[in-house]
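ok so for the tutorial part 2 we go from a plain amino acid sequence to predicted C-alpha cells. step 1 is just haveing the sequence, like this:
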Amino acid sequence: VLGVLLVGGKLFCYTLEPAQRDNRVGESCIPTGRYVIKRYDSKKFNCPCVALYNVPGRSFISMHPGNTVTDTHGCILPGVVTGYLKDQRAVLQSKQAMNALMTLVQSDGMIMIRYGF
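step 2 — the prediction. this is what the C-alpha cells look like for a chain of 117 residues:
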C-alpha cells in the first residue's frame, strides 16, 4: 500500500507498507492516523530508524529504508518518490527520505500516516 507521511499537515515523503489485511501483525499496513514517533538504533536493519507508538492493535512499528513490499518485513518504508522496481510498486530514494526523517526527528514527535493519496 502506498501512502504519505505528513508532518505539520504537509507532505514529507511517500510510504510503502504491506496491503490492508485487517491490521494483522506482520501482514498488514497500519491504520491511517497520528502516531508518536521516537528514534532508535536498529540492530536488525543496522541503521538509525524510527519507531511508531500507540498504533491500535500493535506493539511496535518500525520505519526503515527499503524499496518494495518485499523489504518491508511488516514495517513502513519511506521514499522521496514512487515508481517501480522489478515490476513491483516501490518507494525510491528511500535512504534519502530516511536521512531527512532522522534529521527532523531529534526527539519524540508526532506524524500522520495516510493511505490512498
